[in-house]
């Protein structure tokens, strides 16, 4: 008898699994290390975050802004800086209840995926810290080969933002299906759950079989109430 397909468990990252926004925190981290000008960088960082809150983020502009201060760094120095960021900043905002939630899905045999608008450079080690193997994030363009690779500051492919999350997820699922070439059934949107805090994720929340609003922003909370979606907090006692 063929095994049933695992359930697809999708998790937004910022302000869902984390008690904060990793993209914005990266900007504050660069300020704290004296890598960027405090006043100018914070003003721009805050302005981009307000765009996101309004659902109007210029994601290409934000990614370029996020990466510009580190484009000249060698890969080894960049890796060290990123790990310092995760250790000093991100670890403190990883919610214990979020870790338990991810673990509960993994223990149930679900296919766990973090899907986030934040770029892959910032989020790869965060996904690893949650023990999540699969990450779908905004991709980054690179030039060069091997140890000489450098980020250009541009996005590679479709940004993983709003409707782009569906595009990226479907492409990822299709690639997995092509690689499997038969065998056991694969996880799909036909049996899926998404946890998110943001109304920016409404396209994907509408596409999954179970939508869960986690510490939602006001617009998502109103939509969740109207649609009868579960609302829960990962920040309570």
TrEMBL record:
NCBIfam families, alphabetized: HAD-SF-IB, HAD-SF-IB-hyp1
PANTHER family: PHOSPHATASE RV3661-RELATED, PHOSPHOSERINE PHOSPHATASE
A Gene Ontology molecular function term of the record: hydrolase activity
Keywords noted in UniProt: Hydrolase, Magnesium, Metal-binding
Lineage start: Bacteria, Pseudomonadati, Pseudomonadota, Gammaproteobacteria, OMG group
UniProt KW Magnesium keyword: yes
InterPro entries (UniProt xref): HAD-like_SerB (IPR050582), HAD-like_sf (IPR036412), HAD_hydro_SerB1 (IPR006385), HAD_sf (IPR023214)
Keyword Transferase found: no
Protein name: Phosphoserine phosphatase
């Amino acid at each position: 008898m063929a095994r049933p397909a695992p359930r697809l468990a999708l998790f937004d990252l910022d302000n869902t699994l984390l008690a904060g926004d990793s993209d914005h925190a990266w900007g504050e981290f660069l300020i704290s290390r004296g890598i960027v000008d405090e006043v100018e960088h914070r003003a721009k960082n805050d302005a981009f975050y307000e765009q996101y809150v309004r659902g109007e983020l210029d994601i290409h502009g934000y990614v370029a802004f996020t990466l510009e201060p580190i484009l000249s760094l060698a890969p080894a120095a960049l890796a060290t800086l990123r790990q310092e960021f995760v250790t000093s900043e991100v670890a403190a905002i990883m919610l214990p209840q979020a870790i338990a939630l991810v673990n509960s899905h993994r223990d149930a045999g679900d296919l766990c995926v973090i899907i986030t608008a934040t770029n892959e450079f910032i989020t790869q080690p965060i996904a690893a810290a949650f023990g999540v193997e699969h990450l779908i994030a905004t991709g980054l363009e690179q030039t060069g080969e091997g140890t000489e690779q450098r980020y250009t500051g541009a996005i590679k492919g479709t940004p993983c933002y709003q409707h782009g999350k569906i595009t990226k997820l479907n492409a990822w699922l299709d690639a997995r299906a092509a690689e499997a070439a038969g065998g056991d059934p694969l996880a799909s949107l036909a049996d899926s759950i998404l946890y998110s805090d943001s109304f920016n994720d409404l396209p994907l929340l509408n596409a999954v079989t179970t939508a869960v609003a986690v510490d939602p922003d006001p617009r998502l909370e109103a939509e969740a109430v109207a649609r009868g979606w579960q609302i829960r907090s990962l920040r309570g006692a």
